[in-house]
Amino acid sequence: MIRAVTHGHLDSLLDPASVAIIGASEDLGKFGGRALHNLMDNGYAGRIIPINPSRDQLRGLPAYGSIGLAPKGIDVAVLALPSSSVEGVVAECAAAGVGACIVISSQFAEAGPEGAARQDALVAVARAANMRLLGPNCLGLAVPSRALALSPSVVFTESGGLRSGGIALVSQSGALMTQMYVTALDARAGFAACVSVGNQADLELVDFMEWFIDDPQARVIACYVEGLKSPERFVGALARARAAGKPVVVAKAGRSAQGALAVSSHTASIAGDHAAFAAACARYGAVLFDEAEDMIRAADVLDRCVRARGTRYAVVSGSGGGAALATDKLAATAYESAVLSPESIAALADSFAETQRKLPIDLGANLAGFGADRAVVPATTVMHDPGVDYAILAMTPQPFIAGAVEAFITAGKQAGKPVLVIAQNEFVRRALADTMEQHGHPILPSLDSAIACLAAFEPMVEPTAPKPLEAIDLPGEERLNEIEVKALLRQAGVRTTADVLAHSKDEALAAAQSLGYPVALKAISRTLLHKSDIGGVHLALRDGAGLAAAWDGIAAALSEQGHVLEGCAVAEMVGGVAELIVGARRDPGFGPLLVIGFGGTLVEIVEDVAVALAPITPEEALSMMRRLKLWPLLDGARGRPPADVEAAALAASNISRLAVAMGNRLVELDVNPLIVGAKGQGATAVDGRATLSDSEDQP
Questions:
Q1: pTM to 2 decimals?
Q2: Average pLDDT over all residues of the chain
């Protein structure tokens, strides 16, 4: 295995010259028996050292009673033992100079505080000896190019053995690793390596990501993540992978409260905020999947197909009905249907009737009938059309389908464009098996799985950071009132309403006279989060009598709820065509995040938001707004005036720069609402609140 960069013990772990199986056996009903079986029967060429105190030899190999009695210079020891024995054996391995241990056993940190303490003890012993640990609570690893299976899982022999390829899989779940391995093998995919990290007591998921970025055999990195030990290292690895042009696909558990609880009990991982995780993936071009099987199929497509230059698809089928259904389903996605050029339409004149010379292509409608040779013209025409970025072949049971698919794969290779081949039943899969194997081409089981893969074709655009803000003058308070928040926003270049802080009714009346009616009157209290919920906001006050009554109402409402009224903000009234929320918060692992969504008093009910790592450019902010479900309301839907989305995007970008400038003092900042005027009329921050930490040293 040729490597550009060395990673110490990971090199010897993934490319060992000698392996000890502690707890080795010839009984395939035992972990140690299957571990020895997998290592030997896959043809590993290095030295194999079985450790079993009751046997002198196992499967023709000399066996030793303990690791201390075995020959020295062992790179890796696989521990297939009861958890009660692991700590002592790890200490023996450390004393014997073993390079790394793979601890299969469970009942450590995932089992509770007592198990966590025993896990910490393992790590302390290993680190004192400069020995690395994989696990515990894992299913080991496999490196097909080395015929290396350091795992007791049955899939590494009973599924047909190891198959080399370009997918490097790192999974926190051992069982899910083997499930993804089998899913990939069904499609004839191959792996550079599969690693199960389990509890990540020592070696963690990011250690292996970094190793695979430097491994030329690993062309795609796939990760199943439950919780990250080092979010900042994960982000760094994503950035390095992008710079290296190496795609990363990710499946993440813990999206829901129930999912977060499940992963905590499974591998003692704390599932971080899913929105923050997704924002990190999006910033650096890692594709996030809901299903592990979709992720591994997308990894296979990225490994064995060229990457699409865009997202314009051409649907092709052997059936008019199949083509129509596929087109309908794709129309509901964010991807764009290609349109054939006039030259391509002319090239199809001898093959299809005039009404059939368009996408989707129904191969069964060929004027000469269905046949392998009759697919060459439509395949060449479609795949070389400049408006087509990739083809989706939804094949149905017909004669000559293997030849038709081969025509498209061949034309796709010539044009440098991918072809996603879908076989939804066993008949079609059998008919295509030899062709797909010959071309080393993936096959997908459904249109849904193909649609899931399309996200991997999004272009990898290098993120750009806007110019940082100059130093920001932050108040010493931990909870900022509306007046203080707006002062911060103005430092960042965000337009706000004109406001006056009044400490009495008379001051409020004078302020309103100065600003000019109508005005808004809003309670100022550091203990009050949502002013409107308790009558702390009065809008469009048109005269002094109305303002005086509003002041009395606010004072009474706050007193009744136990809040201290520090004064009221008297503010100019601002109108617009939409209300957004633009917020920022500091995630302890990923740093400052920006949130954009539809706001106002219904923000929690609507829950239509997009999240990104801060800072962002105005262009990125606009892209985030376009992803909102209610985007048409900003874009002039149903006769509404189009909103000044460019001004809103600039405000959001400036708020993101402010979040970065606030550093570790930022806890959260909400601008709600940001009122967006009609096109050309700007965007104005009307209300805001913020919470700061009391020190720059806060995480």
A1: 0.88
A2: 90
